[in-house]
Amino acid sequence: MHPDIQTYNRQQAPEDRDVCSRLAEEIDQHLPDAESKLWHAHPVWFLEGNPIVGYSKLKHCVRLLFWSGQTFGESGLRNEGSFKAAEVRYTAAEQIDVENLRRWLGKARDIQWDYKNIVRRKGRLERLK
After folding, report:
1. Which of 15, 38, 86, 88 suits a disulfide with 4, CB 3.0-4.6 Å?
2. Domains with residue ranges and CATH for the chain
């Protein structure tokens, strides 16, 4: 796990720390080719420079965000924002359905929109793969 992500996780309150650590472990295990780092102060994983999954501490929960999640066809994810992102929120590690998470991580690897070049394309996303 990236040292900055470990530090981020350790800085959270105990319940949130458990959620963050569990998410980071699963993401690292199931996306071994992804680069991870803090991006805009939150843990994010990238494939070939394209952000695909990350999480952040919100006021009352930890939000897991999939940048291309709206195109996964998964009822357990809620649309977030005006692009293709989708999220799920957790208040306890026990809420993490590992089977769902692993399936979503597989889809995050296989279904990607090109966020890396969104500025160059003036806000227009193109599908990758």
Report:
1. 38
2. 3-128 (3.90.1150.200)
